């Protein structure tokens, strides 16, 4: 994309139709608008508020919540729930920035599109790489954890061949579902997300009833250093919304739908996480800190048989999360291809279903390879640090787009405190990154520098041609 606009205003008389050139009024005259239209041409805007909201909830509430309460209690004692609330304030600023930017640039790739429109294609490409890398690493790690968990539960499946078969079956199955169409995929993920939340909702309700009849527990006060660690752990737990938002080019009435879905989903997640932490603490007390399977152990206090339900629920949660990743992340590769920064075949749509099927297949293949050859922990660490980088860039982009009045698809969110939200979000991500290990920070820097070098090399080849 060439010039950056001072102001852009656009509207679409039929938000349910394809977002092609015929849908835009003649008030759109800039290169930015043309680029966003070209990127999403041929896609069907069919995803509604609840379909997107459930996908975001699924992307955020992963299997990690089944083990997080013990780590939070070890770090913060009985103040663990407070750590959730404090980090939720920082995350709220990031959510506001995403909602603002998405209401202005509702395009395939999500954060990639926001940063591209605000700061140009170079930084847009870096953001897209960070978003996709975080997604594919997390998908590989969680698929590996799913296979390992099943192998531990069923010893006969604890072999290399069985592990590989489990990973391929899950990833191929969800790839097929997403290729079939964006609407049926969104609906299926919504239903499966509701099902995966049942064990956790059961835990909260039955646990709260049991706690009412139990004496209060005593905890060792948390130190300031450990409390800070708990805040970082909680902040990581809130990450994940960026991947489902990559499907923004297929959302109906995006300027309204995306902010609503974000606020509904992330508001639910905050309340849900705090409730789970309170109940787990109330059931296990200080013993929660040393539990390897905290929610299952806490549920066993209510009823030994229900602990098994929670263990099964953790595996199902990983399963559904993979489906959500394959729903959103391939759209980043699709957007790159449509913008000419990756080979054009990745931007090919399925002739019948209008889905980016080649991008889905490529993303799935890489995730499967990572899962088969890797393990959860190192992939998860790399994924979360990449997320911090893309959140910083997305917050900065939202602020700039708001100041310049960019609006491609009707009236945007228009949050009044946009500057304060952006600053809080960016500072939070800097602090989070600074708390990582030096080797991990170096890895993030290498990814950013490698992305810049690739973009410049690709641009040079284009100019030479």
TrEMBL record:
Function: Major component of the acid-resistance (AR) system allowing enteric pathogens to survive the acidic environment in the stomach. Exchanges extracellular arginine for its intracellular decarboxylation product agmatine (Agm) thereby expelling intracellular protons. Probably undergoes several conformational states in order to translocate the substrate across the membrane; keeps the substrate accessible to only 1 side of the membrane at a time by opening and closing 3 membrane-internal gates.
Gene Ontology CC annotation, any one: plasma membrane
Main location: membrane
Family matches, as PANTHER family: AMINO ACID TRANSPORTER-RELATED, ARGININE_AGMATINE ANTIPORTER
Keywords, ordered alphabetically: Cell membrane, Membrane, Transmembrane, Transmembrane helix
Recorded family membership: Belongs to the amino acid-polyamine-organocation (APC) superfamily. Basic amino acid/polyamine antiporter (APA) (TC 2.A.3.2) family.
Superkingdom assignment: Bacteria
One Pfam family this sequence matches: AA_permease_2
InterPro entries: AA/rel_permease1, APC_superfamily
Protein topology in the membrane: Multi-pass membrane protein
GO molecular function: transmembrane transporter activity
Protein's UniProt keywords contain RNA-binding: no
Subcellular location: Cell membrane
Transmembrane segment boundaries: 49-69, 81-101, 122-147, 159-177, 189-211, 231-249, 261-280, 300-321, 354-373, 379-401, 413-435, 441-457
Protein name as annotated: Arginine/agmatine antiporter
Keyword Transmembrane: yes
């Amino acid at each position: 994309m060439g010039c950056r606009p001072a102001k852009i205003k656009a509207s679409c008389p039929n938000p349910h139709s394809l977002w092609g050139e015929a849908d835009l009024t003649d008030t759109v005259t800039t290169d930015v608008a043309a680029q966003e239209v070209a990127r999403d041409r041929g896609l069907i805007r069919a995803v509604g508020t609840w379909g997107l909201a459930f996908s975001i909830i699924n992307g955020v509430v992963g299997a990690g919540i089944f083990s997080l309460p013990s780590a939070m209690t070890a770090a913060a004692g009985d103040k663990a729930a407070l750590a959730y609330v404090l980090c939720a304030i920082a995350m709220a600023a990031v959510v506001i920035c995403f909602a603002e930017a998405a209401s202005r640039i509702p395009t395939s790739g999500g954060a990639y599109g926001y940063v591209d429109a605000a700061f140009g294609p170079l930084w847009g490409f870096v953001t897209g790489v960070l978003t996709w890398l975080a997604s594919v690493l997390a998908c590989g790690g969680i698929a590996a954890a799913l296979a390992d968990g099943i192998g531990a539960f069923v010893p006969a499946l604890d072999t290399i061949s069985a592990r590989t078969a489990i990973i391929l079956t899950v990833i191929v199955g969800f790839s097929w579902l997403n290729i079939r169409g964006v609407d049926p995929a969104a609906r299926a993920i919504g239903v499966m997300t509701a099902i995966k939340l049942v064990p956790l909702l059961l835990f909260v309700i039955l646990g709260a009833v049991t706690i009412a009849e139990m004496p209060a527990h005593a905890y060792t006060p948390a130190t300031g250093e450990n409390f800070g660690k708990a805040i970082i752990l909680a902040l990581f737990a809130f990450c994940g919304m960026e991947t489902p938002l990559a499907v923004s080019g297929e959302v109906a009435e995006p300027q309204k739908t995306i902010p609503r879905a974000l606020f509904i989903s992330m508001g639910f997640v905050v309340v849900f996480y705090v409730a789970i932490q309170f109940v787990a603490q109330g059931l296990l007390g200080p013993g929660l800190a040393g539990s390897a399977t905290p929610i299952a152990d806490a549920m066993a206090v209510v009823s030994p048989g229900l602990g098994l339900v929670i263990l099964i629920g953790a595996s199902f949660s990983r399963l559904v999360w993979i489906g959500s990743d394959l729903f959103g992340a391939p759209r980043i590769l699709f957007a790159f291809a449509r913008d000419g920064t990756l080979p054009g075949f990745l931007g090919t749509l399925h002739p019948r279903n209008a889905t980016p099927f080649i991008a889905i297949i490529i993303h799935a293949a890489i995730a499967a390879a990572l899962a088969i050859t890797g393990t959860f922990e190192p992939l998860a660490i790399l994924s979360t640090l990449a997320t911090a980088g893309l959140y910083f860039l997305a917050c900065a982009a939202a602020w700039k787009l708001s100041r310049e009045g960019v609006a491609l698809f009707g009236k945007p969110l228009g949050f009044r405190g946009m500057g304060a939200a952006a600053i809080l979000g960016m500072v939070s991500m800097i602090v989070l990154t600074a708390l990582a290990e030096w080797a991990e920070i170096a890895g993030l820097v290498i990814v950013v520098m490698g992305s810049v070098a690739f973009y410049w090399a690709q641009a040079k080849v284009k100019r030479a041609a």
